[in-house]
Amino acid sequence: MLLLAAFGAVIVGGVVLISGRDDPDESAVAETGFFVEPLDVAPWESAPPNASRPPELGGAQRDERDQLAEWARSVTENTDIPERAVYAYVRAEATLRAEQPSCRLSWATLAGIGREESHHGQFGGATLAADGTVSPPIIGPPLDGSEGVKEIRDTDGGELDGDTTYDRAVGPMQFLPTTWARWGERASGDGAAADPQNVDDAALSAARYLCASGTDLGTGRGWWQAVLTYNESVSYGKDVFSGADAYARAS
């Protein structure tokens, strides 16, 4: 993953942090009134608090669907997360809870990562369509070896990032093309190719990446191990923790 700083990028893993190029949180606070307090937490010692769990997904009864919709609207009203992104995060949590319950990944942790990577698919004025597609696509700067940037030559023929010379991170979770090739998953199960510019696919892929090591994200050690695998920066981990904590408490 990559960490952008002051218009540059430092390679630390398989994604890129692009929010450092401007301050999307300032406008988000102005629009929503939601503020994430930066927490100076000690790495490895604790995990964010448990977030409220939505009604079961995929319920056939109208009451269940209505309860889920009401819950998602409530989260959006109380935070800075678009309702469409809320659905993506909770669906990814539900999938991993069924596939790998010992991981104990919370949607709030995915939201904390989504906030850092692209402000939930809203970086640079992007929006989320009803099907979860980000428009316009979110594409990071070229990893061209300029000052503060590690050089990564093109690995995908420009298929994902439109650049046939250098790689760029893509989508709301800012995956590098090589990382997406390994972890990209189609959330809908419709047989189409996984799309890093789709928030459902990106959230599910991030969830599986976080749980791949077999750690328990309900513990401090497990949570930090997973998040620092996603991005090896402790300051990044603290920012994700702060967001996850705020979202859990607001839910």
UniProtKB/TrEMBL annotation:
Annotated stretches, region: Disordered = 42-65
Against Gene3D superfamilies, the record matches this protein to:
1.10.530.10
- Molecular functions per Gene Ontology: peptidoglycan lytic transglycosylase activity
Gene Ontology BP, a term? peptidoglycan catabolic process
Recorded hits in InterPro entries, A to Z, give: Lysozyme-like_dom_sf, MltB-like
Q: What is this protein called?
A: Transglycosylase protein with SLT domain
The organism of origin for this protein = Tamaricihabitans halophyticus
